[in-house]
Amino acid sequence: MPRFTLSSTPFDTATLRAGLLDASVGAYASFEGWVRNHNDGRGVHGLHYEAYATLAQTEGDRIIDEAVAKFAILDARCVHRVGDLAVGELAVWVGVTAAHRDAAFAACRFIIDEVKSRAPIWKHERYVAGGAGWLHPGGEEIR
Amino acid sequence: MTRVNVLYFASLRDAAQVAGETVSTDAADLRALYDELQARHQLPFPARQLRVAVNGEFANWSAPLSEGSDVAFIPPVSGG
To answer: How many domains is chain A built from?
Structure first.
């Protein structure tokens, strides 16, 4: 079963969390990224995530493999939404289990940072004042 | 001539006005292919701001083209 997944529908974090827990787990850390109503001073109505699914899957699993190798953790999962999302919806979830909290926190941070910088997923924002645009950090502004 | 299937995402797809196309080209490597398509579609990034993938795996810009392969140009990502 892949440890990184893309989801085109809302998902339940309690189920994901329960799937990670067992008697060897002493610490669980998670991160949730939510769609907020503003970005860079502009009101945001909602957004659309597009992914190159094949490569996002491979790269997401690779990131979690790296986290398992780098930190003293037991397991990890990440789910990222694709498609249309409204303000207030959960966009991305990371869950990590470990014997102790230091590794759980560090691996959770590593996974979300790497997913944001490496996974081929793109955010298209729709603005309250009208208009919309792709976000391409470090690239030229596209409107 | 080599035929490859090119995939466009996000603002590159908007600029190309297609999600993908089959291209016949004499380009010697992936960078030359991108330069050719950037000029044709007025794609909004130079190659140095992108990554490139072949058949679902990241690749080097200097790799030669392989007949029938899927080539994806990856603009700066913004997940999370």
So the answer is: 1
pTM of the model: 0.94
Identify whether A46 is part of a domain: yes
Interface touch B77/A116, C-beta < 8 Å: yes
Tally the domains of chain B: 1
Q: Tell whether B79 is covered by a domain.
A: no
Q: Write down the ipTM of this complex.
A: 0.95
Give just the sign of the alpha carbon dihedral B6, B7, B12, B18. positive
d(CA A82, CA B4): 27
Chain B's closest residue to A124, CA to CA, is B10
* pLDDT, tens only, A44-100: 999 999 999 999 999 999 999 999 999 999 999 999 999 999 999 999 999 999 999
d(C-alpha A87, C-alpha A47), whole Å: 8
Residue A143 lies in a domain: no
Residue B80 lies in a domain: no
Provide the token pair at B52: 């490139």
Sheet of strand A4-7, all strands in order from the earlier edge strand to the far edge: A4-7, A73-81, A90-98, A27-34
**Contacts of residue A92 in chain B, CB cutoff 8 Å?**
79-80
In a domain, A142, yes or no: no
According to DSSP, residue B19 is labeled S
